[in-house]
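Purpose: get a first structural picture of the assembly so the mutagenesis plan has something to point at.
Setup: two entries, given in the order below. No constraints added.
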Amino acid sequence: MQRNARAERLAATVTSVAIVGLAILLHALLARPWGGLVAASCRWDCVWYDRIAAHGYAALPQLCDPVRLGQADWAFFPLFPLLAGLLARVTHLPVPMAALTLNIALLPCLITLCADDLKLQGRAVGAWFLAAFFVLYPFNVWYVSQYSETAFGVALIGGVVALRRGRVWLAAVAFFLLGMARPTGFVLAACIAGYDIVTGRIGGDRTASTPARRLADGVLLVAAAGAGLGVFVVYLDHLTGDGFAFMHVQIAWHRRFRFFILPILHALGHRHWLPQGLFAIAGIALIVWLIRTGRLFVGLVVGVTALLAGSTGAASIERFVFSNPLVIEVGASLAWQLNPRRRWAVLAAMAVGQVLATELWFSGSDILT
Amino acid sequence: MTALKLLAAAGLLGFDLYALWLGLHPRVAPVWRAYYITHAIDVDAFVAELRRTHPVQDSPADMPPLRAYGRPGGR
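Result (structure tokens, whole complex):
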């Protein structure tokens, strides 16, 4: 039985690798007019990640570049640039190429983890279909760019899958990495642990699960995620004297915490930010739908992410909401329930969306950031 | 096993509290505090002051011009 499960997982992984390989080939073809895949995929925050991976964090903010005055790389959490920098040193690849290679290598892992997550919830999706859905999904451009999305996704879904299997120590390691991956990582880990303590719906071995045991597990998970964030805080304190510099530096991007409706209204009132305003409204509609259809866990994770990110501005809201791997899981699961002809129609429609999104990304359009 | 988890959690929470204490007690120059923390001055005043105290032609932290990278984000 266990051997069958292993063989099944190996087949799913091989399928994911093959389909991701085909997707990268498509991206490479689309990237030719933009100077090749590595150059074309390096947009927006990529420059910051590349700099951190190559040289480490800077002690001073930007003082000369008129577009970035006062900004600094402290806003960008260390997990992805750390792994990319390590890969670049080991392989002697240029940093942008190493960062992209890392994400391409992590993507099949993420897809396999999502397949595990769906299976553990009793909503298994065919391996080929999930991989195809994942790589054709239009809001996945950040998974095949030099961004922290893939590392964050692996830590998030890895932690959730470990928790569902009852492997709390492994989940704690994943949540430690989650705390190092993004500003929202620690808060999400706390929400996931809190959800499990209250509902008992995530942790494995439910027959042996008691509130006291779930509480002990939850405290360990929150403490581990806090330690991931804490490592960065201690490092920033050592570097700049300000442990919360990652938060304070947001003012250089004109971001400050406000009631989340205000940044959305601001975005809707400006032609330049209108797409982000519309994405924010679509995101709210998605979160409401998730909660109303009983997908409380996904609604909680996506809702908290959107609330934290949206309270400082509508920029990149489409990335925080629609590229969340839990949202992709829900989409794949719904599409899998359709009859085969409609499944193909969904994949074909998404392929068109994927090409459009990739072209938008490669062109540096500010519709996707 | 639960006792071991609680012991590990206690150790990690100790570190978390240390990091929180560091974060709540920044040891920075007044101009840094005024711009990044209390938002009492604008970026031009902050940069002018910092360039005065760090009189280098270019900040060692500065990156190449934006060129094709697009508008930088915040996280």
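Chain B is about 55% helix and 0% strand.
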